[in-house]
Amino acid sequence: MRYCYNADTYDQNAFSVDGFRGSLAEYIVRETERLHAQVGRYKSPDEHPFFPVNLPEPLLPPVQYPQVLHQFADSISINNKVWNMYFKDLLPRLVKSGDDSNCGSAALCDALCLQDRDRLMELLTYETEEAAVKKRVEMKARTYSQELRIHEEGDETDPVHKMKPSLVANLYGDWIMPLTKEVQVENLLRRLD
Question: Which residues form a coiled coil (predicted)?
Answer without folding.
Answer: none
